[in-house]
Amino acid sequence: MLQGGGGQFAAFRLGTNTGPASPLLIWGHGWGHSHAALRPLAEAVRAIAPSLLVDFPGFGASPMPPSAWDTADYADAVAEWLMRVPAGKRVWIGHSFGSRVGLRLAARHPELVDGLFLIAAPGLQPRRSLAEQARRKVRSLTYKTMRALTPEGPARDRLRRRFGSADYRQAGALRPIFVKTVTEDLGPVARQVRCPTVLVYGERDTETPPDIGERFQQMIPRSELAVLRGLDHWTVLTEGRHQIAHRIGRFLETLP
């Protein structure tokens, strides 16, 4: 285990350099997970490139961040660490929350990232019907009204369980970060990305539907989109592992 970002997060090495032109793969996991969720994928490509798998602050083996970070803070912490990693070609591979951090990293520190491979990348509001928008507004207003009338304690916890998403309910001390994260609009950030980018989505993903990838592809100049049939937000990492590993290998071959 390596320490990164001034000791703020842990990183785990997998594989060794296979040649002078071999890129280093940096892996960023999804919300509520750790590097372990991406390790099987990293194992699948270890023959072609070495990897460093990150535990973001607040997850896995890493301590809590010092304040309520947003994804820019996470990206800056990663950048601080990468500045101390030996120079060479680097590719960021992120899933969900890790894709948010990757977009920020490529936009804010372009000299540190040579390519992005983003799986189920969020950061844009899904397109919803007028009826769905109305239902969500009513639900949000109801929750806010009831929360204002309910003191902190067991009763408010019941409200959170009733109205909040699973990630929100389970966020605990990370809840302020979660709220910041899910409300971010990464459209302006995506337009600043200049490195080659691959966007991969599961056809059945309802958390980050492929529609988001289609819009990101229009925003990121050097990007391509792949939609994997029959897979959702999580099975894209398991059932889709070999498809993704193949696409990673092909992507590395095309990097300048």
At a glance:
Helices cover 41% and strands 16% of the residues. It is an alpha/beta fold and 256 residues long.
Structural class label:
alpha/beta
Q: Any low-confidence stretches, pLDDT <50, length ≥5?
A: none
What is the total tally of β strands? 8
Could you describe the largest sheet, including whether it forms a barrel?
8 strands, mixed
Strand neighbour order, sheet with most strands: 1-2-4-3-5-6-7-8
CATH structural class of the largest domain: Alpha Beta
DSSP helix fraction: 40-55%
Q: What is the string of helix and strand elements?
A: EEEHEHEHEHHHHHEHEHH
Q: Specify the CATH homologous superfamily of the largest domain.
A: Alpha/Beta hydrolase fold, catalytic domain
Can you give keywords for this protein?
about 260 residues, alpha/beta, 2 domains, 11 helices, 8 strands
Describe this structure in words.
There is one protein chain. The protein has two domains: 194 residues, 3-Layer(aba) Sandwich (Rossmann fold), CATH 3.40.50; 45 residues, no CATH class. The model has no long low-confidence stretch (mean pLDDT 85). The chain contains eleven helices and eight strands. α2 packs across α3. 40% of the residues are buried. The longest helix has 19 residues. With 256 residues, it is an alpha/beta fold. β1 and β2 form a beta hairpin.
